[in-house]
């Protein structure tokens, strides 16, 4: 058994031993909202947004992007589980700002071992074989952080399955301060219309 | 400003005020692993798996499914940010077990207001207009929980961009106890091969 697996199971043992009355929580989010944010290890949405178990849906992917899959999740979130406010939260120092589709496609074609970042460029240090399957993936990289929040709120706002009564807020989380900074233009686009 | 927005910002203010040395965390996950799990409000992966900020990637969507978008995120996770072990964690009492593509497509075609669950069936209580755009979404519902974990580990394991040295574990999180229960068949399929 790997060290990581042992550690995760030990931490889980402790969590379960102090589970308290969380067994009684209902499936629908009590506070009727959802957060879409990045998978980045430095982000703990429950902590930075003050969520207890049972409060809110949390959707995370690379970049916190409004991918088709995030939209699938958001549609289920409001239609079946009653959320009414959604936060799109990207963050400073995001890995998605450091590469393009071409960068990662070339790295993957070269090898499937991890690449290294020198602060400006990604370099492949691994050995092949790689795979060209990256050509079929749109990686949803970010070239401008505010714009990516605006674009994603806009994409969600204009989706035919997203009703006008939902409010969508756009934010950037600052990994240096822990602070949420609103992107006013995004929140303006995300305003409920009915 | 909505109550939810006020509460989130107040909680964030407090978090940022006690941010400590987290400003120094690096982008790559310190413990080199990733968790793919459900957006369900009752799940707090940082708590149930013992993660501090900076430790691990967390990817979440409706069901914790190995969607194309989850695979996009996992590829970025290992290739650029060096993770080597991945946990696929579905959970008991998952909303994704309560409906099918047809169910939600019909509900959405009827109205974009929330539906109600009577413990067996979803009923639409809202008013139209709805939208037929749900026809274009595969909702990745779950009919058997263990099987969905096995299927998802298998999909990730056999993806051409996922190298053999990555270990993938399959688990079910029990919302009644807080406990992680391994799905041995999934973890067997997910074993590293090199």
TrEMBL record, chains A, B:
SUPFAM superfamilies: beta-carbonic anhydrase, cab (SSF53056). This is carbonic anhydrase. Keywords: Lyase, Metal-binding, Zinc. Zn(2+) binds at residues 38, 40, 91, 94. InterPro entries: Carbonic_anhydrase, Carbonic_anhydrase_sf. It catalyses: hydrogencarbonate + H(+) = CO2 + H2O. It holds the Pfam family Pro_CA. GO terms for molecular function: carbonate dehydratase activity; zinc ion binding. Gene3D superfamilies: Carbonic anhydrase (3.40.1050.10). SMART domains: Pro_CA. Binds 1 zinc ion per subunit. The keyword Cytoplasm does not apply.
